[in-house]
């Protein structure tokens, strides 16, 4: 099952530059939450704070609190955090020297699973969840980089799911994909929310409207408005949200 995430007064810096300003928001378990806002407003920085990646960036600094369920995420071992909070990036990034199978199995092997048939079962399950199994079941040992971009992105989703996370962070996962692959990823997100809590960064308003239960609008490192997606797109409370979603800036 998915976990809720509670963010309190989160601030993030790159060196002296304060990039996230006192963000507080509650992310519901087993829901899709979209993060929108103009380029440079801090969307990627925000989701990187939710799996402890921001602090790995040189000069990256974080203050404030993040809870995963009831646990303090910043008191956990970062390696455990990244197992529980999976991430899919904008550009599909399969491990280039590995096969399709190896890309999905690697996290399981690192987690200590050695049994061949168990590994194969878990790889199959993950590829099925990512709606990729039928397309690759006959070529599992071929290089992952021989897949199309859309297939590579679903492979990265399968890789993230293999280790059974509770939260899935997706940073513009469909922006490099064609419309058909984009729709497949969107359908997948809607299916996955039964089992996971999903945060998705997107520049595509229609996409947010189609898949997100709640939407958060960021501007210059601040959370301007956060709420039910339908309400936000039909009756935004803040003039800046309205300007953004109607395309008047950004
Ligand atoms: N590694 C970094 N080092 C220094 N500054 C950074 C770094 N990454 C991002 N920033 C700065 O932090 C701010 C927020 O960047 P971030 O990548 O979070 O924005 P974003 O909302 O994801 O934008 P986009 O929609 O273009 O992906 C920007 O001003 C950016 O220049
Ligand atoms: Mg970004």
Protein described:
By secondary structure, the chain is of the alpha/beta class. The chain has one domain (5-245): Rossmann fold, CATH 3.40.50. It contains ten helices and ten strands. It has helices spanning 43-49, 78-84, 100-110, 116-129, 133-136, 149-162, 179-192, 205-211, 229-234, 239-245; strands at residues 5-14, 17-27, 32-36, 60-68, 71-72, 85-88, 167-171, 197-201, 214-219, 222-228. A six-stranded mixed β-sheet has the order 6-7-8-3-9-10, with helices on both faces. Strands 2-1-4-5 form a four-stranded antiparallel β-sheet, with helices on one face. Strand 1 and strand 2 form a beta hairpin. Helix 3 packs across helix 4, helix 3 runs parallel beside helix 6 (149-162) and helix 4 crosses helix 6. The protein is globular, with a radius of gyration of 18 Å.
N-to-C order of helices and strands:
EEEHEEHEHHHHEHEHEEHH
- Provide mean pLDDT, rounded: 95
Q: How are the strands of the largest sheet arranged?
A: 6-7-8-3-9-10
Ligand names: adenosine-5'-triphosphate, magnesium ion
- Contiguous low-pLDDT stretches (5 residues minimum) are none
- Helix count, DSSP H or I runs of 4 or more residues: 10
Main sheet attributes: strand count, strand direction, barrel closure: 6 strands, mixed
The CATH topology turns out to be: Rossmann fold
CATH superfamily: P-loop containing nucleotide triphosphate hydrolases
State the domain count.
1
Q: Kindly report how far apart the N and C termini lie.
A: 36 Å
Give the percentage of residues in beta strands: 25-35%
Structural class, judged by helices and strands?
alpha/beta
Oligomer: single chain
User: Can you give the helix content as a percent range?
Assistant: 25-40%
Radius of gyration: 18 Å
The CATH architecture category equals 3-Layer(aba) Sandwich
Coarse morphology: globular
Q: Total number of β-strand segments?
A: 10
CATH class: Alpha Beta
């Amino acid at each position: 099952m998915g976990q809720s995430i509670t963010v309190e007064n989160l601030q993030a810096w790159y060196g002296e530059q304060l990039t996230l300003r006192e963000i507080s928001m509650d992310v519901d378990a087993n829901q899709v939450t979209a993060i929108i806002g103009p380029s440079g407003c801090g969307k990627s920085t925000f989701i990187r704070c939710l799996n402890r990646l921001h602090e790995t960036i040189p000069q990256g600094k974080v203050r404030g609190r993040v809870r995963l369920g009831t646990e303090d995420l910043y008191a956990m071992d970062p390696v455990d955090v990244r197992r529980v909070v999976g991430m899919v990036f904008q550009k599909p990034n399969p491990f280039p020297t590995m096969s399709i199978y190896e890309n999905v199995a690697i996290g399981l092997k690192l987690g200590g699973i050695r049994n061949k048939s168990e590994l194969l079962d878990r790889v199959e399950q993950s590829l099925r969840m990512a709606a990729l199994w039928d397309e690759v079941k006959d070529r599992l040992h071929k290089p992952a980089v021989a897949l199309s971009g859309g297939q590579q992105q679903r492979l990265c989703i399968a890789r993230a799911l293999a280790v059974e996370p509770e939260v899935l962070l997706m940073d513009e996962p469909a922006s490099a994909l064609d419309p058909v692959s984009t729709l497949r990823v969107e359908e997948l997100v809607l299916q996955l929310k039964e089992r996971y809590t999903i945060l998705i960064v997107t520049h595509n308003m229609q996409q947010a409207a189609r898949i997100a239960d709640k939407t958060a609008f960021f501007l210059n490192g601040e959370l301007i408005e956060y709420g039910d997606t339908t309400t936000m797109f039909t009756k935004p409370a803040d003039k800046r949200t309205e300007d953004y979603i109607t395309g008047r800036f950004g």
